[in-house]
Amino acid sequence: MAVTHDLDAARAALQMINPAPYNAEAPPEALGGEITPTGQHYVRSNFALPAHDGKLEVGGAVEHPTTLTLDDLRAMPAHERAVTLECAGNGRLEMRPLPTGEPWGDYAVSTARWTGALLADVLTQARPAADGVDVRFEGADHGAYHLQPILPETDNDDLAFVRALPLAHAADPAAEILIAYEMNGEPLTADHGAPFRIIVPHWYAVASVKWLKRIDVLTEPYTGEFQTGHYMYEWPDRPPEPVDVMRVRARITDPAAGSTMSSGTCTVRGKAWSGTGPVTRVDVSLTGEGEWHAARLDPPSAPYHWQDWAFDWEANDVGRHTLRARATDAAGNVQPEVPPWNRLGYGNNAIEVIYVDVV
Ligand SMILES: Nc1nc2c(c(=O)[nH]1)N[C@H]1C(S)=C(S)[C@@H](COP(=O)(O)O)O[C@H]1N2
Ligand SMILES: [Mo]
Known about the structure:
Distance between the termini: 52 Å
Strand order of the largest sheet: 5-4-13-8-9
CATH class of the largest domain: Alpha Beta
Bound molecules: the ligand Nc1nc2c(c(=O)[nH]1)N[C@H]1C(S)=C(S)[C@@H](COP(=O)(O)O)O[C@H]1N2, molybdenum atom
Number of strands: 24
CATH architecture of the largest domain: Alpha-Beta Complex
């Protein structure tokens, strides 16, 4: 287990929003990069850092229950994927009325290179029962919960972090869900789930269980505080829905919000991503109402990797200017103008508005 002084070094570049459990945003400049350095990747944890005995139990409704170690996982075919992870609570601070929950600004999103075994390979070896429906993932972290639980059966004094995926998705090799043991070419750090974690591409990162301890195949749909209590969209006007794939979103990385610049041509740049991607277009607006202009959009460099876009703006008029960027994805999803309000404040993908002063 890492000592406190190592943790301080690992966390030095982040914007802390809660010391215990430790939650922190990426520094804004990290959004400009292709790959987020590990020390700049946001951290979201619901409990204190756990001890982990190095074992992964695979069981439940399977023919061949097993216990795997890091060496066992490393002996399996390795898969490396760059994956953009975004916290479902990212952007909560812009919702009105302000929901409860961690006060995330807009920097709980990062992209790292993850290496691990395919979850589908591990499940193939375990041979799930024919009537399996869900796969349950349990983290080693547990304890008193710092939020008000939603499910009446939740034991608030000793709760564990547990999530589930449909078996059909978990066992699909094409979904490329990893049991990752490396991040950016190094063993996982304490904050990011050492010794191994799940990485679920395209899903809000709540699905990517850290400090993975158990995998169980279930013959009934899973219910639990982090699945059917929290991490549900509680809409004001329609039935609740589970938080699953990331909603389409573009961000402006350049020029910096609120900055002052000299008049002339300015290349506006940013990132875009979607869980129902790839992103197929980004449009930029230079006024409150009115015209949208198509930006140049790079194709994704890898299937789960945020995309770069750019737009040349003739910033000849001195004064304050508003800039907005709006992404559309391959499924036809477009960002809304207004945050899609839900009681717990998840999935805010509203169009970003910034201003810059041209002098
Ligand atoms: N075991 C465990 N896994 C977890 C969590 C947690 O609290 N415990 N938080 C989840 C949430 S809400 C997010 S956004 C991501 C954050 O991953 P990161 O800290 O590596 O950025 O981890 C997910 N996996
Ligand atoms: Mo999250």
